[in-house]
Amino acid sequence: MSETPQRASALTDPDLAYELDRAHVFHSWSAQARLEPMVITKAEGSYVWNREGNRLLDFTSQLVFTNLGHQHPRIVAAIQQQAASLCTLAPGYANGARSEAARLIASHTPGDLDRIFFTNGGADANEHAIRMARLHTGRHKVLSAYRSYHGGTQLAVNVTGDPRRWPSDTGTAGTVHFFGPFLYRSAFSATTEEEECQRALTHLEQVIGLEGPSTIAAIILESIPGTAGIMIPPPGYLQGVRELCDRHGIVLIADEVMAGFGRAGKWFAIEHADGVVPDLLTFAKGVNSGYVPLGGVAINEAIYSTFADRVYPGGLTYSGHPLACAAAVATIETMEDEDIVERAAELGRSVLGPGLAALAVEHEWIGEVRGTGAFWAIELVGDRETREPLAPYGGSSPAMTDLLAACVRRGLLPFSNFNRIHVVPPLTTSPDEAREGLEILDAALTEASAHVRAT
Ligand SMILES: Cc1ncc(COP(=O)(O)O)c(C=O)c1O
Fold it and tell me: Is any ligand 1 atom within 6 A of the Cβ of residue 162?
């Protein structure tokens, strides 16, 4: 009997996976020839393994999406069961996974955000939310904050307020940026949270007045800005934005793509602002722990009514994909059954918050620690007085590169952006795992501090 020759396969050979990646994969947001991507061969819970066989504690949740950790058995089983019965279905049909995912999401969104439009991820959720707002109001302009990220597609990146917008900024997308509150680097020379809040609202009110309220369809805001630095809005800020929107007939869109689904110790981060209900809420990532691409827009009754008898002019081939929706159902049910949101809040209160504050006492190049739940940032500075960032806005620095390498060498997968390390582990991370990660971070900060002193 002749034997079938074995084909060399990247599926089983990590070195070949690396070679083929370098030969054929074009990566996001990167200079391609300079990339040396880490090959991940296995993942479980809060850990991943690289091709050298090293285990790394995942303090990134990848791109802040594996909220229930890697390979969660309930989500894996749900995807397998759905695949065995109905892998895929065009968006025009009804299907159990899609209907139940929508019901579960609507059961947790605030107020009357009870209708769910499914997308493939966060950027297209924001694109559709803005389209809905524009059609609902008959206005065109969209206001958003500097120091924000809303996605990589054309409109979403124009709404974005970080350097990733610059190469694609058309100047004609109908987007206007304003300063959100950020006391540590206040645009208003404020010295207290109250001042920052009040001045940021006065500034926004002026921007609205000068742009022309009757031209503004929507204000889109991350309820807690994520990649831009995890800046929790001061008490009263989001209430003030809501009031400005109400006064001028502007749609308020809360982008909960990163901060939602328990990340900030609430089902949705907007719940930190008592009584504020947005008109549209966008989500992705944590909705199903990112196991299969899924995002969406939760729509209130007023905007739903606009499209009750008028066609909504938008759609996606994979809107409400059954595999993604089955993963969402399993994720949300697990979150409910295992009290995951409260566990995330407690992880922040009792381990991450105090642990990072202790690191700031130890390491003078930590300028500020801020966050809540499993959503934290440490701001690294060359000098605590001047608050000079340890890497320029939109860039990196040898000190940051050293720090990240020290983390990986010691078994921690770190999330960084410019001069910041974000501590954003899965919400299922145990207190002991979180302490282990903080100890590694402590040691890496000590090791890399030689470079900081040298700069
Ligand atoms: C707040 C926020 N909005 C939108 C997006 C875009 O989501 P996606 O990459 O799924 O398109 C992201 C992604 O990081 C995000 O953090």
Answer: no
